[in-house]
Design a protein that fits this description.
By secondary structure, the protein is an alpha+beta fold. It is built from 11 helices and 15 strands. It has a single domain, classed as 3-Layer(aba) Sandwich (Beta-lactamase). α4 runs antiparallel to α5 and α5 packs parallel to α10.
Length: 400
């Protein structure tokens, strides 16, 4: 976890330090322990409401591995919608029932979904669950629909050469993750509209660079191993790439043609709703809000206190948490004060150096870090002068 290509803007570090609590200063003073990275994206509009972006970095290094955890669900949601358009079969869209069959060792079938209004699985329902509560099974099903090879080849084609998505979030071997399930899209009468055979990925990933983290870890059989955990073949997604993927969907007109997903206006409206909707606002799926509270997947500004989020603030984001790593890629909008900005960051909180023991300092250090950094940037945004007030109507939506 060396800092080979560390990118830091002194202005951002000075801003944070000037307002930092003792806890935040302690974290800022120990980048080698917490391996934090931050990207603050300042957004300014011209008189035609066209946005421009200025990125500020703090210890951002695409060579420094962090486990991206659930953040990889975000590009898969976009790729799944894109694939539906590529299929281009009448009657097949994000709301069409998608039945998952099995065709290889360890695969499971999905023939119904009790969380859906019609009790049937669909790409739309999986995307809802991914953004509302970061559902793992929903990610697995989109991984199987798109296929390991297509996922990586498309992201590499878009310029994200360092992204590597090799696995589902279920116990499986490297070979099992290369095999993905057969799928059927059916109409309301059960007639098959489109059938997709099982797929196999023969991609050659570059695993030459070893990635070892921690001092010890528990293996799959819960045995303590006195050696670092090996992440060499795990999913990988540099923070800058995750930020750019999010930005390209929020602001597709400003993205290069290479980095623009092939989505429709309806797709974007659908994504904006579920990237920002709160669990309490969802009818299908319906969630227990004592467990899935407002800030369950909203780290910046809110998570530490689990407080209610004001109605005039919306966070369009995707978080991830695993093995002591916390990550959030967020676009934050305050409709009351006409404020918008992007904030992307991650941190590693694992004091004892043991991985897979479920003993991480998320509550004590991780979530407070995100909340405080978010509030410092938000306070700066509230006070800074803008040449033109942004028209944020594009991001307003009905949630009920």
């Amino acid at each position: 976890m060396a800092h080979a290509q560390d990118r830091t803007d002194q202005w951002l570090e000075d801003l944070l330090r000037a307002k930092a609590s003792p806890l935040l200063k302690m974290i800022l003073n120990n980048p080698d322990s917490f391996h934090y990275q931050l990207i603050y994206t300042k957004i300014d509009r011209d008189k035609h409401n066209i946005p421009s972006f200025h990125h500020y970095y703090l210890h951002v290094d695409r060579e420094q591995y962090f486990n991206p955890a659930s953040t990889v669900k975000m590009p898969l949601a976009f790729l799944a919608l894109e694939k539906l358009h590529k299929i281009n079969v009448p009657g097949v869209d994000k709301f069409t029932t998608m039945l998952t069959d099995s065709g290889y060792n360890g695969q499971t079938t999905v023939l119904y979904d009790s969380s859906a209004e019609n009790n049937m699985p669909s790409v739309a329902q999986y995307i809802r669950k991914i953004f509302l509560v970061s559902d793992n099974d929903a990610y697995n099903r989109l991984y199987e629909f798109i296929g390991q090879q297509a996922i990586n080849e498309r992201l590499w084609q878009m310029g994200y050469k360092d992204i590597r998505i090799t696995r589902r979030f279920v116990r499986a071997t490297e070979e099992e993750n290369r095999h993905t399930n057969p799928e059927r899209f059916v109409d309301n009468d059960g007639k098959v509209l489109y059938s997709q055979p099982a797929a196999y990925s023969d991609l050659q990933f570059d695993f030459s660079k070893k990635v070892l983290i921690g001092n010890a870890h528990y293996d799959r059989d819960e045995n303590l191993v006195q050696a670092p955990m090996d992440f060499t073949t795990h999913n990988n997604a540099p923070l800058e790439d995750l930020q750019q993927i999010m930005q390209s969907v929020l602001f597709p007109e400003q993205a290069s043609s290479r980095q623009r997903f092939k989505l429709t206006g309806d797709d974007y409206r659908f994504l904006y709703r579920y990237m920002s909707e709160l669990p309490c606002e969802s009818a299908y799926p319906k969630y227990d809000t004592t467990e899935f509270f407002d800030s369950y997947t909203k780290f910046f500004l809110f998570k530490a206190g689990k407080q209610k989020i004001p109605e005039y603030i919306r966070v369009f984001n995707k978080t991830g948490w695993s093995y002591g790593f916390l990550t959030d890629i967020a676009y934050i909008v305050d409709f009351k004060h006409n404020v918008e900005f992007m904030l992307t960051g991650n941190i590693y909180v694992n004091r004892d150096g043991v991985l897979n023991d479920d003993k991480y300092e998320y509550e004590e250090l991780g979530y407070p870090f995100f909340k405080e950094v978010g509030n410092i940037i938000y306070d700066y945004e509230l006070k800074r002068k803008r040449a033109h007030r942004p028209d944020l109507g594009k991001f307003k939506t009905e949630y009920r």
